[in-house]
Design goal:
Elements lengths: L1 H21 L7 H4 L15 H9 L9 E8 L19 E4 L4 E12 L1 H11 L3 E2 L11 E7 L2 E9 L4 E8 L4 E9 L3 H13 L6
Antiparallel strand pairs: 1-3, 1-5, 2-3, 4-8, 5-6, 6-7, 7-8
Length: 206
């Protein structure tokens, strides 16, 4: 009598493990789906687990850092439907805009440390991100680099007009790293981040 029961137990255990392995580690539980919150991560199911992990690390789950290098920048307007990058030469200190393969001019710069880093981190993570949004133009007014010690964790430029910034990507077909656009909603959270940036570094062009 023990063998059929043991066999049934093994089968049920195997099915449970298989379902656990197939479960989406980034997906929400049924209870979580009914829970209201101030913001909801927007990472489409179509992303690979690697892409979703990379996206989370630069948006909702930004790691802690102890120094921010904030830059007031500008970039000439470009035709969003043209593949040609703006034809220009850097005039001085510049900040990379990786998806375009160009550099924005730097007009001012400040280093931020201490509790202000936590405030900026919370302001960034509270934004309503939209991976598929804001990809038709990019006119950044600020760029920043996040450091932990001497290690650079993340750098990007942010455009509130086009509501986007860039994040690192990995092209699995070409087996190489790249950068792509990531969007955010122009709401109170986005305005709060811009207000913080302006508080630490008033933009001379705005």
């Amino acid at each position: 009598m023990m063998r059929p029961i043991l066999t049934l137990f093994v089968l049920l255990t195997s099915l449970t493990l298989a379902q656990s392995q197939d479960a989406d580690p980034f997906g929400s539980d049924q209870d979580d789906a009914n829970t209201e919150s101030e913001w909801t991560p927007t990472h489409p199911d179509g992303d690979t687990p690697h892409e979703r992990m990379l996206s989370l690390a630069h948006t909702d789950s930004l790691p802690r850092f102890d120094r921010v290098e904030l830059y007031a920048v500008s970039l000439p307007k470009r035709d969003p439907f043209s593949d040609e990058a703006p034809k220009r030469k850097p005039t001085g200190d510049t900040f990379p805009v990786h998806p375009y393969g160009v550099h924005a001019d730097i007009h001012a710069h400040v280093s931020i440390t201490g509790r202000d880093c936590d405030k900026l981190r919370m302001a960034w993570q509270s934004m309503t991100f939209d991976r598929l949004g804001g990809a038709f133009c990019h006119l950044p007014v600020y760029g920043f680099r996040l450091y932990r010690g001497d290690d650079l964790l993340f750098e990007t430029t942010v455009c509130w007009e086009c509501q986007n910034f860039y994040v690192p990507r990995y092209d699995s077909e070409k087996k190489q790293h790249a950068h792509g656009w990531y969007g955010f909603v122009s709401d109170d959270h986005a305005k709060s981040l811009l207000k913080l940036f302006r508080l630490h570094l008033p933009h001379p062009k705005l």
